[in-house]
């Protein structure tokens, strides 16, 4: 077991150190939409019965139409984390032809375009793979059996154009490898998504997150988009009824709803956060609509200062001058953050 | 990938063959309590935020008190299915010392006391293990690295006394093996549970189902009770946030509630079902409070006859004279089942 990664959402731990009731903290440590969507009605049977084929199929069709994945019906999974954990097993499964004679089957090298979400490196390292953290797609070679690109990237918001990723896919495929594109933060900029191209890209796996954009991270729901035999393997390993009935029911409704008000609300909150950060003289160095990255030599001190004001943001061991700010839920929270930042001793 | 097992809950498929709207079918094909519990209030943050440590810890403490597992805090898992899938990986993990020199490390034999829930054999077969289906605990030998006992057993309701299972555990442990006791249907007879003994039984793993007894199978929630390093391995492989916030929140409430009304309701429904089956001249050959097994040479014909009346029960490929009836939700359903059975041509 490798050491667990400190993700956002650890309000309990922060409150234990800095005091305050967890409910009174302002949690800006995640990239989850903080604006409450109206939950659609959940039929009683979604709670009480095992998720039936009808419920699963309806969520898959809604996801296909929402993500525009053509003939591929996205596979619902209990959070993309659950399929990240399965990637090492996937590329070691000899029923999935991801390697050819140019890659020795004993070769356990994969590439992760970094820095990025830490669970990919953790899952592969834990399974005995050598993980190459590359910062440039040119560093990916035929020795890599799989490459992970998070697009847009977390935490810096770096984006890769569709054509660049298709060229990378073709290069991976020619060497018998797989390309994983994690579009967890892709909902606010659908033009970046490779989903509509997935039916023609046999060695591509796309992960989508449901909870971040819709502000329902507690649901544990994501989707995998890939060719049929890869999705069948994931489905087999996750076992029957991997996703809860309420999650499937809610997804079936919300993925068919008009999401433009949600996008509008996120953009409004993002503008509010940017105004606060700029007002405090902080330098915005990246981000997506759902989070903002600040680069500051005093990042560690700002982090601790905000904790003393019971505001949790995200810091990074590997980049001590970075802080990631999730969206504030409302203008009152903007003011609270702004006032706390004003009190920081410069 | 081995072929999927046809479990209960497949109303969509049955309706496609025999007609009718799925909602109009009477689903007696599962062992899930059909009586609706009142859902406790779910705080908004359980839906919207990643499940925080506080929510997880509270559910674990409630489960410890409910299952009486002493110093062991049961691990919440997204359905026991999710940890069944991990058992092959567990006994191949060289950090878990489950074998000693008396068992060759290349030996891939496990025992499943059978017939029983099919997913154990499927998970191990799929991982390259030889699964010995034994019908008697005496047939379990030192060559078996792991034994599975479902207690009470599904579908025949067979029970093993606590002392018998402890002796089996000690025998497995002496040979370096593990004992898995699946208590998915154990809630209606807590005296059968090994949970209170688990802290003293180092090579025991207990699985508990939350959804069956509470009638919330759609939630996808179960608990694993075992020594710390085994639970840590499961937790690591499932990854962070494996269980949804609403499931943790509901479990934290309901596991602390008075469950005697639920037991009473289940017993009442069980009596109603038994009266109908006996009234139809069927021979009850086993079961638990949550399902009843009937043995009848005409089982296949009865199954098809009931399907024509849009009532789904469970049949078994390996025992063509068995039918399993789940609980009817109310007296009206008793009458509907009774009338359909009366029309069966004898």
TrEMBL record, chains A, B:
Its job: Decarboxylates L-threonine-O-3-phosphate to yield (R)-1-amino-2-propanol O-2-phosphate, the precursor for the linkage between the nucleotide loop and the corrin ring in cobalamin.
The protein's required cofactors: pyridoxal 5'-phosphate
Entry protein name: threonine-phosphate decarboxylase
Pathway(s) per entry: Cofactor biosynthesis; adenosylcobalamin biosynthesis
Source organism phylogeny: Bacteria, Pseudomonadati, Pseudomonadota, Alphaproteobacteria, Hyphomicrobiales
Gene3D superfamilies named among the record's database cross-references: Aspartate Aminotransferase, domain 1, Type I PLP-dependent aspartate aminotransferase-like (Major domain)
Keyword terms of this UniProt record: Cobalamin biosynthesis, Lyase, Pyridoxal phosphate
Record-annotated Aminotransferase class I/classII large domain positions: 42-338
Organism: Rhizobium leguminosarum
Superkingdom of source: Bacteria
Listed GO MF terms: pyridoxal phosphate binding; threonine-phosphate decarboxylase activity
Catalytic activity, as annotated: O-phospho-L-threonine + H(+) = (R)-1-aminopropan-2-yl phosphate + CO2
GO terms (BP aspect): cobalamin biosynthetic process
EC nos: 4.1.1.81
């Amino acid at each position: 077991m490798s050491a667990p990664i400190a993700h956002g959402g650890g309000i309990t731990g922060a409150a234990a150190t800095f005091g305050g009731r967890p409910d009174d903290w302002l949690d800006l440590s995640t990239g989850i939409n903080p604006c409450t969507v109206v939950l659609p009605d959940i039929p009683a049977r979604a709670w009480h019965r095992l998720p039936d084929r009808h419920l699963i199929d309806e969520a898959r069709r809604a996801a296909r139409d929402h993500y525009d994945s053509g003939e591929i019906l996205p596979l619902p999974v209990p959070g993309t984390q659950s399929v990240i954990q399965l990637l090492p097993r996937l590329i070691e499964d000899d029923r999935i032809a991801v390697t050819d004679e140019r890659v020795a089957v004993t070769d356990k090298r994969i590439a992760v375009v970094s820095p990025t979400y830490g669970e990919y490196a953790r899952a592969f390292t834990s399974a005995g793979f050598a993980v190459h953290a590359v910062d440039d797609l040119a560093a990916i070679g035929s020795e890599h059996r799989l490459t992970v690109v998070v697009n847009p990237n977390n935490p810096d918001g770096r984006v890769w154009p569709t054509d660049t990723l298709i060229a990378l896919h073709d290069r991976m495929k020619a060497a018998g490898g797989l390309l994983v594109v994690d579009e967890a933060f892709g909902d606010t900029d659908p033009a970046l998504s490779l989903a509509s191209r997935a039916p023609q890209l046999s060695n591509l796996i796309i992960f989508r997150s449901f909870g971040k954009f819709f502000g329902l991270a507690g649901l544990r729901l994501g989707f995998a988009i890939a060719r049929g035999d890869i999705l069948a393997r994931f489905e087999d390993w996750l076992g029957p009824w991997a996703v809860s009935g309420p999650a499937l029911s809610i997804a079936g409704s919300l993925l068919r709803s008009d999401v433009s008000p949600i996008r509008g609300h996120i953009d409004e909150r993002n503008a509010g956060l940017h105004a606060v950060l700029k007002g405090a003289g902080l330098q915005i160095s990246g981000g997506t609509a759902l989070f903002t990255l600040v680069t500051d030599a005093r990042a560690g001190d700002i982090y601790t200062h905000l904790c003393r004001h019971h505001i949790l943001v995200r810091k990074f061991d590997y980049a001590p001058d970075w802080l990631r700010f999730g969206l504030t839920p409302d203008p009152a929270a903007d003011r609270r953050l702004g006032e706390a930042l004003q009190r920081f001793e410069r």
